[in-house]
Amino acid sequence: MSNDGKHDPSCIFCRIVAGEAPAHRVWEDEATLVFLDIFPVSPGHTLIITKGHHENLFEAPAGSLAAVGAVSKRIAEALREELAPAGMMVFQLNGADAGQTVFHYHMHLLPRWPGQELVLHTRVPGDPVALADLAAKLVARLERSAS
Ligand code: 5GP
Ligand code: ZN
Fold first, then answer.
1. What percentage of the chain carries pLDDT values higher than 90?
2. Sign (positive/negative) of CA torsion 53, 146, 37, 125?
3. Ligand with an atom nearest the CA of residue 55
4. Is 76 left (phi over 0), alpha (psi -120 to 50) or beta?
5. What is 12-137's CATH number?
6. Quick check: is 106 catalytic?
7. Top mutation candidate among 11, 14, 20, 37 for ligand 1, by most atoms within 8 Å of CB
8. In this structure, are residues 29 and 35 in contact, taking their beta carbons and an 8 Å threshold?
9. pLDDT tens digits for 57-93?
10. Burial class (CB in 10 A: 0-12, 13-18, 19+), 141
11. Burial of 50 (0-12, 13-18, 19+ CB in 10 A)
12. How far out from the chain centre does Cα 37 lie?
């Protein structure tokens, strides 16, 4: 597997970065893209990805990982302000045996509430209207905090 981070047309996350596939986008900078998970485990389930195609932690350059880490704080704060969850889970899976299902590096931010089962995935799609509404609110919040 190459480590050049080039667009992989067979990768759904590369297709989202390129604008070839839709996503409820929340944030974008030079190195990262942030959008809502289409199968949210809880409201506000968000993915932070490297713009370049790197399969996992082992393949992604340290600089890209640092960019994801830096933006994670900003996004977690926006989610906390918007949704007031009881907690915030951050996780990142590497390899099918670790549960990874999309092989393009990404970090999950998962707002959590009391009594919520500890699961990493669901196959239930989120309500598209609710996802669009939340994404718009987060975009507005992030724009306000940046200015
Ligand atoms: P992983 O299991 O690889 O850590 O996480 C992949 C995540 O990507 C899952 O939570 C899954 O719901 C999400 N996902 C898969 N396909 C799409 C998609 O096309 N759009 C969005 N927004 N999320 C996706
Ligand atoms: Zn990719």
1. 94
2. negative
3. 2
4. alpha
5. 3.30.428.10
6. yes
7. 37
8. no
9. 999 999 999 999 999 999 999 999 999 999 999 999 9
10. middle
11. buried
12. 7
**SS3 annotation, 48-103:** EEECCECCCCCCCCHHHHHHHHHHHHHHHHHHHHHHCCCEEEEECCCCHHHCCCCC
Amino acid at residue number 98? A
147: how many CB neighbours lie within 10 A of its CB?
A: 5
Rounded CA separation 49/28 (Å): 10
Spell out which residues line ligand 1, taking CB within 6 angstroms.
12, 23, 35, 37-39, 47, 93, 99-102, 121
Q: Spot the catalytic one: 45, 53, 54, 106.
A: 106
Is 2 a residue whose pLDDT tops 50?
no
| Closest-CA residue to 21 (of 137, 82, 102, 142) | 102
How distant is the alpha carbon of residue 27 from its chain centre?
Answer: 10
What is the predicted pLDDT for the residue at 3? 52
Instruction: Record the pTM.
Output: 0.97
Domain extents for the chain?
12-137
